[in-house]
TrEMBL record, chains A, B:
The keyword Isomerase applies. InterPro entries: IolE/XylAMocC-like (IPR050312), Xyl_isomerase-like_sf (IPR036237), Xyl_isomerase-like_TIM-brl (IPR013022). Keywords: Isomerase. Residues 23-273 form the Xylose isomerase-like TIM barrel domain. This is Sugar phosphate isomerase/epimerase. GO terms for molecular function: isomerase activity. PANTHER family: HYDROXYPYRUVATE ISOMERASE, XYLOSE ISOMERASE. Gene3D superfamilies: Divalent-metal-dependent TIM barrel enzymes (3.20.20.150). The keyword Chloroplast does not apply.
Length: 286, 286
């Protein structure tokens, strides 16, 4: 059985699986690539994780995630930058362990407003400054920092970078080989400026990752984990995929779905469902 | 006791109160204006509602709400337009019944995607066309249609107009005396383009209504009713008020908070708390 050749299973879709179980489920579903998360990698240690990835024969499409660097100057910011530098090294190692075609991409989520802080513009500036502080490290490691705009529903508590245009405003201050953006349909599907911004990202060769999840209603009690597999919701995924293709992106396409219904299911079953949903509804070309 | 002279209590903040109880609670708190909703007006009938408003001595700052006109051509769209024409007449009558300084403003919420429809751009076009179909009726009645951009979290199921810029793109196709926009802090606080768009709205004299609610976290199980009184959340209300003032808006400022904790409380108490929160955290000039 073989899935769409550009499909990558982001590990968050099978959140409770160990790294080995996630890799096995991905392969069993005929999927050729995987998007990794730092926590399950840390559970086995980086060296062992790289060995497992190499054994799997899978491509690595990204590592989630760095970022969370909106703290004001001080110990919190220093610690966040140090953590991101470790994440950069992990990204390089895991991509090197993956099959040819792996992408040394570190997904960055900016983080929210520090407690009690209402200066959203200030937090956004600090996020930009943090990207600047990490760009040389990324370039030296051959890693692309991929700034992920988060849906505005998360602006207060998770990600102050809210639109693709805003992410590009930051990324374009640095070389394209060091800083790009993530286009995640869940976060950007609503944006009236999306066609223009995806085209802009393509012109600058800034699309470092393309992720799919669908917007389902009614939203569950926790909006963070209310996502759906492609085809289950309201987002025009095929339309967005056409924009991303037209912008020149030819890399792997991750399905990253935060949803309890998937997390509670068997990872192999979720991987198979993901492959079927992707084939039916992603609109991604082979 | 007298509240801030520009404060208006939007009736949604005391949702379960009758029109008379809402008017009484507003006056008892020393608040000089009220934002009305169609449902409690309909509960007593328009004529009686106008008499109650006239008796109250309050200004009317807006009527919520028209809109919900994204249906494709057919009976659904025809019915929606007819409903909006009734709402225009109600707006004119209620504003005429209010104290001097009342504003004949009808708040429009576009509505979401029709069931099974993923063509967000198409729904947005139909919303624009519906505004166009109503603009002459509004002008003839002396009413301003105020397009309210809704937070993108509601793009699928409630309002396909997601940003102030997008609302202005529509409004600017029609005369300013007939079509304007609502700036509601809850819906737009996250927007990196907000300063530019508020200034643009001011230049065109398009700000027909300014509404305050705060963004609180964690979001409750229903994001629609997870709002907070000014000062209870993360939005920089004083900063946004400064933008709106600088843009030339001098009208009443509504506090419109959808929250079970307020709806379950005594309306007079809620009105008093609203006045206190507004005085402390709105940043609105006297």
């Amino acid at each position: 059985m073989s899935a769409h050749p550009r499909l990558s299973l982001n590990q968050a879709t099978v959140k409770h699986a160990s790294l080995l179980d996630a890799l096995d489920a991905t392969r069993a579903a005929g999927i050729g690539a995987v998007g990794l998360w730092r926590e399950p990698v840390a559970d086995v240690g980086l060296e062992k994780a790289c060995a497992l990835v190499a054994d799997s024969g899978l491509r690595v499409s990204s590592l989630c995630r760095g970022g969370f660097f909106t703290a004001p100057p001080g110990p919190g910011r220093t610690a966040a930058l140090a953590e991101n530098r470790r994440a950069i090294e992990e990204t390089a190692a895991l991509a090197a362990a993956g099959a040819p075609g792996s992408a040394p991409v570190l997904v960055l989520v900016a983080g929210g407003l520090p407690g009690g802080d209402r200066d959203l513009a200030g937090a956004r500036e600090r996020a930009r400054d943090a990207v600047g502080a990490l760009a040389d490290d990324a370039r030296a490691a051959g890693v692309v920092l991929a700034i992920e705009p988060m849906h505005p529903v998360f602006a207060a508590d998770r990600g102050v970078v809210s639109t693709l245009g805003q992410a590009l405003d930051v990324a374009e201050q640095f070389p394209a080989e060091a800083v790009g953006v993530v286009v995640d349909t869940y976060h950007v599907w609503w944006d009236p400026d999306l066609p223009a911004q995806v085209a802009r990202a393509g012109r600058g060769r800034r699309i470092a990752s393309y992720q799919l999840a669908d917007w389902v209603t009614p939203l569950g009690p926790d909006v963070l984990v209310s996502r759906g597999l492609p085809g289950d919701g309201h987002a025009d995924l095929a339309g967005i995929s056409a924009l991303v293709e037209a912008a020149g992106y030819r890399g792997d396409v991750e399905v990253e779905v935060f949803a309890h219904a998937l997390w509670d299911a068997d990872p192999a079953d979720v991987a198979a469902r993901t492959a079927a949903a992707f084939a039916a509804s992603s609109g991604v070309r082979r």
